Amino acid sequence: MAWVALIFAGLFEMLGVTMINKLHHDRSVPAFLGIVGGFGVSFILLSVAMQTLPMGTAYAVWTGIGAAGGAVMGMLFYKESADWKRIICIGVIIASAVGLKLVQG
Core-most of 36, 45, 63, 79, by most CB within 10 Å? Predict the structure, then answer.
């Protein structure tokens, strides 16, 4: 259950990061509420996951999902570069998060 909470924490972090960019482009109340809600839920779920998972693993996976997801969201919605070098780097981040799950003792 902790891993499910951690994955959702990372997804809500992606939402928060995406809403930061949206707020930068159009100053709106929904974008601001998306930031507060996204990061709020993300921190709560991270806290739940850290009751079971080691702090280092939980934090690394959480930030990895947020970083990789934020980059992908930028490519999909904000026309950021999607060249092969960026895709490989995103793959390395995801592989590292999966690796931490596999080697957890």
Answer: 45
